[in-house]
Amino acid sequence: MSYKYLILGLLTERPMSGYDIKKQVKLALGAITSASYGTLYPTLHKLLADGYVEMQEVPQRSRPSKKVYSLTERGRDDLKNWLRQPAGADQVRREFLLKLYLARNLGPQEVLALITSRRLEAETMLQGLTTDRLNTKDVQQGWIVEYALCLCEAELNWLKQFETEYAVH
Q: What's the pLDDT tens digit per position in 70-104?
């Protein structure tokens, strides 16, 4: 999971404090990831140092100032470039789900291209798993292959349905 892009994507919604970002991750993306403060704050500090976000201190009564982060143009451009790239093979499903969640930052054709690209990746994966099924001799390995096949087939069904319905709109 790329916490850099998770944070950049969430900041497209509105400026947020680290606490707000953590709450939003849990609320919107809890099914695919969790984010500790130990991960979020170092990432926020790096994004700030690299010019992808800016920070404003908001005074509070009887408490320390709240640090509110917002996206810079550089951060917005980097996020859009990342959204247009295929997901890396090591984190394909999680990155794809994050990109799907953040796709509101893309135009309709780019969303459809994201879905189509993932469908093609899943079809390739399905072909490999089908070959693995034929060559697997070990019972437990067979279970893993069958499980992966079921997940892949379900994802392909969803992607095809999405492509069909989204193209109509």
A: 999 999 999 999 988 876 554 667 788 888 889 98
Sign of torsion, CA 43 45 47 50?
negative
Q: Rounded distance, CA 47 to CA 159, Å?
A: 33
Which residues sit opposite 58 in a β-bridge? 66
Q: Are residues 138 and 72 in the same domain?
A: no
Integer Cα distance of 81 and 71 in angstroms = 15
The residue count for the chain: 169
115 belongs to a structural domain: yes
Residue 5 lies in a domain: yes
CB count in 10 Å sphere of residue 74: 15
| Tokens 């950049």 sit on residue | 8
The CATH number linked to 38 is: 1.10.10.10
Q: Is the pTM of this model over 0.70?
A: no
- Which of 23, 71, 31 has its CA nearest to residue 48? 71
